[in-house]
Amino acid sequence: MLNIVLFGPPGAGKGTQSAKIIESHSLVHIATGDLFRKHMGESTELGQLAKSYMDAGNLVPDQVVIGMVEDKIQEHLDGNGFIFDGFPRTVNQADALDQMLEKHGLSISGMVALEVPEEELKVRIKERAKTSGRVDDQDDDKINNRIQVYNRETSPVADYYRNQGKFTAINGVGSIDNIYEEINSAITSLEV
Ligand code: AMP
Fold this sequence. Notes:
By secondary structure, this protein is of the alpha/beta class. Helix content is 59%, strand content 14%.
């Protein structure tokens, strides 16, 4: 199985690139933000719980996210592997993911990190706000908070994988296709 963590700050292009990767490598896409938005749309208990955190641009508590991901992994153990998008977002989540995978004799093959300067992230999120309908894309305070949360709580996750020798950084500025080519060659080298 090929199990990839696609990493990067909000607006780095994880969703766009994931869509291309899952198609070419037949991986199951586990995007925690998308899963929460689906729950919110269906007004499930989980969606209602996640909403106040998400709307403010804060992280949903680890235990809630970890439980949701564990359910998804269990549903797709017969596939080619997973691409984790927007997860893990804390070192605690990364630890839990390793443990979950280990239970099934699996592990993370590698992390691919998209690097994009902060000013560019803000421009992209504001552009996306015009069509995304996402409350957390809509104003500067929320966008700034998400970037701060990323810097404070999520960026240490890169070191977690770097310490395991599983980290590859990719320049996330450029054309979608060129960035995809870079990601694809990083992933292909993990397959052998
Ligand atoms: P995203 O679609 O990845 O930008 O996620 C949108 C929002 O969902 C985040 O700002 C968090 O509120 C929540 N969220 C998504 N993934 C996670 C996660 N792994 N841990 C905690 N909160 C998350």
